[in-house]
Design a protein that fits this description.
The structure is a homodimer.
Chain A: H1 3-12, H2 19-25, H3 37-58, H4 64-75, H5 77-86, H6 97-101, H7 108-126, H8 128-138, H9 140-143, H10 155-165, E1 172-179, E2 186-192, E3 199-204, H11 207-227
Antiparallel strand pairs in A: 1-2, 2-3
């Protein structure tokens, strides 16, 4: 095993019995047929379950919705890519020529997939308990510093809750325009309150995203007014 | 423990050390605060991982996409509700008054959630290995009779693959109309092939669903033509 791989194993706090599994976990599909896609599938499910079970255990008062939002924030690509970067997975990835040239070793999706595959490889190498231990080890910083699950709610949900708490009517979202070619649509959405003159307006590549942005702007407006 | 609960445990091939966990798993939120929602969160992740790992193990030639589709078909609400019905979970559920009256014990979502919660309860009661064993036990019939993963592909994907295999151009989807109030939109979509006169047309509550339906109709048309 190379020095770089040995360093990775120290960072994972895990020694592979079968190092070929680790090599496969670090092989992107652009490199060849013996790649990490199936291991990624395995690791994805494992991380999802282990992180969920840990949150269940630690957040004894959190309801199901809060647990789901917390888990989603921890298992999303962005978070996994951060962990992949800390482990310096980019330096030990096997990438095909074109991915190498285009800087694939820096890409979030490739780093996140490799992290999942490495965890899947640990599971195959030794079993569930070892894979759980490695998962909790690489996630330690995130698990000890969880975000407030309220802030993880999407803007439309938060806006609705804020208005309901004040016994006000629900916001109305209207699509003002829809334009652009099929693969690059742009939606412009207006959010308005029936009991106030405030409106906000935002654009996005889908109706849903444009609505969320308009809701976020309305939330800000409401909080500015409250503090004015 | 009641006779009905004992029968359930025999069907699960599992005896609870702490029967209170089973009772909680069978308690719907309409019944009270001590309900099965958190256990459901736990069991959902466990089933997802265990079924995925089993497919990984058994389907050694399946690619990641095929594994994902197979898993999705096994962990969807409909399948879980079938298993819940075989276990006769409906007879041992604790439901609130209104759910009882409206026949909640027959509803897919409530049965599927209860199955997830029961598996979550086994995990808390004894640990991962026991919960895995119970999961594979209740899923045995489905796992020994897996659908062909090709048929699980959505219609747009299959249509694209059929056309690519014949070196033909990709289908074009157009929204012909969009109508109805916000909570009950209807989209009419046309699917056409640039190299043929055939078009199909379908409606649905979202653009995506209308497209899938139009693609399914086009697939049927192509297969009729091929057999004509």
């Amino acid at each position: 095993m190379s020095d770089l791989l040995q360093r990775l194993c120290r960072r994972l706090d895990y020694q592979f019995k079968n190092p070929a599994l680790l090599t496969q976990a670090l092989t992107h599909r652009s490199f060849g047929a013996q790649n990490n896609e199936r291991l990624e599938f395995l690791g994805d499910g494992l991380i999802n379950f282990v992180i969920g079970a840990e949150l269940y255990d630690k957040q004894i008062r959190a309801e199901e919705g809060a647990l789901s939002r917390l888990r989603a924030s921890l298992v999303r690509e962005e978070t996994m890519a951060l962990i992949g970067r800390e482990l310096e997975l980019g330096e030990v990835l096997h990438l095909g020529e074109s991915e190498l040239k285009s800087g694939g070793y820096r890409r979030d999706s490739i780093l996140a997939d490799a992290l999942e595959a490495v965890i899947g490889a640990v599971f195959l190498d030794t079993g569930f308990d070892a894979a759980r231990k490695v998962t909790l080890h690489v996630y330690a910083a995130f698990l000890s510093n969880l975000p407030d699950h309220e802030t993880l709610k999407d803007a439309k949900t938060r806006l609705q809750e804020v208005l309901q708490a004040q016994s006000r009517a629900l916001p109305v979202y209207e699509v003002l325009s829809e334009s652009g070619p099929p693969h690059k649509r742009e939606f412009v959405v207006r959010c308005s309150l029936s009991d106030a003159v405030e409106t906000t307006q935002s654009a996005g590549p889908s109706r849903r995203i444009a609505q969320q942005r308009a809701a976020a702007m309305m939330l800000e407006k409401l909080s500015e007014n409250a503090h004015a």
